[in-house]
Design goal:
single chain, alpha/beta, Rossmann fold, 3 domains, five-stranded parallel β-sheet, two-stranded antiparallel sheet, 16 helices
């Protein structure tokens, strides 16, 4: 990438996110409510640029933050969902073996010889999220989301970091591919295990707390425009009470949104015990959690209730 082109790309990013306030406003316009700390961390991740590690309990909006940032930048989001046993082939690239085999058979049918180089060309390459993010043509950087990096094993974590540090990958058959526009990298973790120091010390870090009921209600009303404020506040307070229990799967913001959507469809205006009993399954997705909540009662969940 030429120096003028790189300068132009950087100027475009500065225009989109000139400061933290502008980014906060742009995220808000995209229906993502970020507090000052999170907005500052995301701003620095874009402008430095530097990978950012977002940690917090499940359901606090870590993944949505990356999605919202991609919307603000007007650029693709490449998401890699990590899990135990994931390997480089699933993250980076692999060869389309079925298509290669078909190419061999077609060549044999035409009595043609097939050179090894012919079978390892661009047309046979299956690009996975990491490679797609590196090859993104710009003019603005893509957002690369490594979701739940803590679920992958330590070896994959080390591979991922080495790749991201260089913003390049070597494919033996094709050579080294270097990003012309290195992606904005967002990593998320639910802290199922500790990440290696080599990764964390090179990332910006931000812990996302579970929001207070008033903020949950504001988020819910953004995502469920037809919902009344009293109902959103009731549901947010109920979710917060449920999270005080020792639940295996505490409900998050996504469950709050789904719950209010369902209550609105049912014509519920205020949350009471009857409505709670009708809609347990929108909030609690584990039998043991249901049993535990039942011991406290629907009236407790509703906070006194409205009938």
């Amino acid at each position: 990438m030429s120096a003028p082109a790189r300068a132009g790309a950087e100027e475009e990013v500065r225009r989109l996110v000139p400061d933290v306030a502008a980014l906060t406003s742009a995220l808000d316009d995209g229906d993502y409510l970020a507090d000052a700390g999170l907005a500052t961390a995301l701003f620095l991740a874009v402008r430095l640029p530097q990978p950012i590690l977002l940690e917090g309990e499940a359901g606090v909006g870590k993944t949505e933050a990356a999605k919202a940032l991609a919307r603000v930048l007007g650029t693709p989001l490449y998401r890699l969902q990590c899990y135990e046993g994931i390997d480089a082939g699933e993250a980076l690239y692999e060869w389309n073996h079925q298509r290669q085999l078909l190419g061999i058979r077609l060549a044999e049918a035409k009595s043609m010889e097939v050179a090894e180089a012919d079978l390892f060309g661009e047309q046979y390459l299956l690009r996975r999220p990491l490679l797609k993010a590196i090859e993104h043509p710009g003019p603005r950087p893509a957002v690369l989301l490594l979701d739940e990096i803590d679920r992958a094993d330590a070896e994959f974590e080390a591979f991922t970091f080495e790749l991201l540090a260089e913003a390049a990958v070597t494919i033996p058959e094709l050579g080294t591919i270097t990003a012309t526009h290195p992606p904005v990298v967002v990593l998320t973790s639910n802290r199922t295990r500790d990440l290696h120091d080599a990764l964390t010390r090179r990332c910006l870090y931000h812990w996302i707390d579970y929001p207070r009921p008033e903020r949950i209600a504001a988020i819910v009303r953004r995502r469920v425009p037809g919902s009344a404020e009293p109902l959103a506040l009731d549901a947010a307070a109920a979710i917060t009470r449920l999270r005080s229990l020792d639940l295996a799967k505490p409900p998050g913001i996504a469950e709050a949104i789904d719950w209010v959507s369902a209550l609105a469809v049912l014509g519920v205006e205020r949350l009471g015990p009857a409505a709670v009993e009708q809609t347990w399954g929108m909030v609690l997705k584990n039998r043991d959690d249901l049993d535990l909540a039942w011991t406290r009662g629907a009236a407790w969940v509703a906070g006194g209730g409205h009938g």
